[in-house]
Write a structure and sequence with these properties.
The chain has twelve helices and no strands. It has 248 residues and is mainly alpha-helical. The protein has one domain. The two termini are 28 Å apart.
Length: 248
């Protein structure tokens, strides 16, 4: 129960905050000496909890966009998501990097530098063009490597391009729905085809915690965006990155 308490909270809080959930899970696995196959047997369920949180949080926005027939936004999301096709050839390389703490630490620091750069004010606009969608797609692909935060790099690149904070927040997480959904399906296929998976009370507890903490993380990040304090996450990434560089 304690294991799933920690794992559920880590997954829920770090999946949406710009601090790299994969880096935190890799660190968690090293501390608890968890093998990769064991990780896949529970991570798929914890990811499902956060995916449900994402759908619930944006349900009204999605309904409104569908009602308004916002095909332009849908086209840009699909365009950005095309880059995920390149994730399959990089999957093995990404899996190998889960055990390399120093490499993850470097990625965390690089993500922090990108986020810190958003500190400098720019004129803000609401329209996301295809050039911005292209960059979001490329940076989202890079986030398959632990230490590169998907939400962190996509929101940061939009802010650096002069997109308004709330628009960047919304586009980043609407873009996350196909990305996270595809990743969950891939993990589920691997877990159910290669391992005997069984539900237990601690596992259900972990799923509920990942769902609840994921919702709280989304509300918290939206508030941070409205306060224009997104850049503050960079300092946490620097500290965590330096810790992993020091870790043997």
């Amino acid at each position: 129960m304690l294991f799933f308490l920690i794992a559920g909270l880590i997954q829920g809080l770090t999946e949406f905050l710009p601090v790299s959930s994969s880096a935190h899970l890799a660190f968690f696995e090293k501390i608890f000496s968890i093998e990769e196959e064991a990780r896949l047997s529970y991570a798929v369920f914890l990811h499902f909890g956060t995916f449900l949180a994402l759908l619930l949080f944006f349900a009204r926005r999605i309904e409104r966009k569908v009602r308004e027939r916002d095909y332009s936004l849908l086209a840009k999301i699909l365009f950005s998501s095309l880059f995920l096709l390149f994730a399959l050839p990089l999957k093995n390389l990404s899996a190998l990097s889960f055990t390399r703490m120093k490499l993850i630490g470097i990625f965390l620091i690089l993500t922090g530098i990108l986020i810190l750069a958003t500190r400098f004010p720019k004129a803000r606009k609401e329209e996301i063009n295809y050039s911005a969608a292209l960059l979001c797609g490329i940076f989202q692909l890079l986030a398959i490597f632990p230490g590169i935060s998907r939400s962190g790099v996509t929101i940061a690149i939009l802010l650096l391009l002069g997109i308004k904070e709330e628009v960047a927040f919304e586009f980043s997480f609407l873009l996350a729905i196909p990305a996270v959904g595809m990743a969950n399906l891939s993990e589920a296929f691997h877990a159910f085809s290669h391992q005997g998976i069984s539900f237990s009370l601690p596992l259900l507890f972990g799923i509920f915690l990942s769902f609840l903490s994921g919702l709280l993380a989304l509300f918290f990040l939206r508030k941070v965006m409205r306060m224009k304090k997104f850049y503050l996450f960079a300092f946490y990434l620097f500290l965590f990155g330096l810790l992993l560089l020091w870790l043997r």
